[in-house]
Amino acid sequence: MEGLKIKSVSVGILKNISFTLEKGKVGVLLGPNGAGKTTLLNAISGIIPAKNGHIYLDGKEITTVPIEERDISYIFQNLALFPHLTVYENIAFPLHIKKEENIGKKVSRILKKVDILALKDRYPLRLSGGEKQKVAIARALVTNPELLLLDEPFASLDFEMRKFIRAEFLKVIKEFSLTTLIVTHDPYEAEELGNNIIKIRHGKLVHTDNDVNRIKVRSLKKVTKDIALAEFDNFSLIVPFSSGRSDHYCVEFLEEDLYISSSKPPVPTLNTLRGKIISHKENAERVHVKIDINGTIIKGHIPWYMWHEINKEEVYIIIKYRGTKLKGVNDGGL
């Protein structure tokens, strides 16, 4: 199925960006501030013209199509709700612009779908942060667009509200089977939201970087054709297994492929380990940490807003199975 296709797009900081997002899937642009994430959304939406390259939506090239003719909805970071319009009027606004019929029926439907019917007569100033998010989502979905773009949509919410709104958002998006591209710099949020995580730094797509963890495997046991048990000195991981054979193996994974929490997962979770934070370094967005897992040191990072909630002496680490790679070192028999 055809969704969004970006081919060799260059504009502003962006250099030769190419990727495909399957129709109905959620993609996440993950990267630090200044990486070019918002620039890419603006190019896709038509706010700024692409200098080079091609943008396709549902199999049709839209690179030079005027912004008002692209079947795209865009939720900005500041939400851009009209303060002088009620919730109902805010949601109805894009339908009036498109001169659609049955506006009342369409607005009522989306109000119920997003569970904000009781708010329809309120003005934005009388809404909480979470309620404003829901209104912005409803307004974006009411035209049933081919593509939904969101720029750091949950950044203004506190941690608990962010988790709740993300869950509500995903439920609605699943019902609509809508192709969606979201910008975030939070790897936790990216993993929760996205089917496809597209990492971007300094205007370029990132496939591997210097934040790779590499752990030497002591022994390896095939569990199934595609899965192996990698054993280390004091713990083990379930990892993907390919047909390649080697005398020695190591497991690689990015810092972004870790969950770090003070709370033990409520149910058994694949590749969950326990360790302690032995050092850290803070910046404006996150805290980079080194974690000791029974004598093995790995690197990860934690969003700064979670740092003070973390018990440094005992943390739980989930190493995501789909983020691990088994690397053979020195060819030979297993």
Question: Regarding CATH, which class of the largest domain?
Answer: Alpha Beta
CATH architecture of the largest domain: 3-Layer(aba) Sandwich
User: What structural category do the secondary elements indicate?
Assistant: alpha+beta
CATH superfamily of the largest domain: P-loop containing nucleotide triphosphate hydrolases
Oligomer: single chain
- Supply the number of structural domains: 2
End-to-end gap: 40 Å
Number of helices: 7
Describe the structure.
The structure is a single chain. It contains seven helices and 21 strands. The chain has 334 residues and is α+β, with helices and mostly antiparallel strands. It has two domains: 4-205, Rossmann fold, CATH 3.40.50.300; 212-331, Beta Barrel (OB fold (Dihydrolipoamide Acetyltransferase, E2P)), CATH 2.40.50. The longest helix has 18 residues, at 159-176.
